[in-house]
Specification:
By secondary structure, the chain is mainly alpha-helical. It has seven helices and three strands; from the N terminus they run ααβββααααα.
């Protein structure tokens, strides 16, 4: 399952010439728009989701927005369906795959393996522009190998 996430994230980084981190929000937004999706930001939301050809996103900090946008881009690229209509097991698998996509898209694997020996989680979160919780949970889970 991670192989698809890795392949799709590498394709997007190559297509958009992404080679510096943190990835600017506008680049992630452009990738989403180029896939035919609109982005709707609302202070009334607490979670993000994809519905039809729209991504709904809470108005939040850039580091959180970066992860949410990358996660939803993962759904767009890896899943051609409305995951909310799937059974729980399949939905959980798709959520895990979108998490994996966001990790492989936002974090350069080789560089992270070196940086993680030098920096703590807080420093890594600053370096890559993501929340420390993302480093401690998703990143370490998907880059454990």
């Amino acid at each position: 399952m991670n192989q698809l996430a890795i392949r799709k994230s590498n394709l997007m980084k190559k297509r958009y010439f992404i080679d510096s981190f943190p990835i600017p929000l506008w680049q992630i937004e452009q990738a989403i728009i180029d896939q035919g999706f609109d982005i709707i930001i609302s202070a009334k939301l607490c979670k993000s989701c994809v519905i039809k050809n729209r991504i709904f996103l809470p108005n939040t900090y850039d580091s959180i927005s970066r992860v949410l946008l990358a996660h939803e881009l993962g759904h767009i690229l890896c899943h051609n369906c409305d995951i909310h209509r799937l059974d729980k097991v399949t939905r959980d698998q798709f959520e895990s795959q979108a998490d994996a996509f966001s990790v492989f898209f936002l974090i350069p694997i080789r560089r992270f393996k070196i940086d993680s020996k030098i920096y703590n989680s807080y420093e890594l979160s600053e370096l890559y522009g993501v929340p420390v919780e993302f480093i401690d949970s998703c990143v370490k889970k998907h880059l454990a190998n």
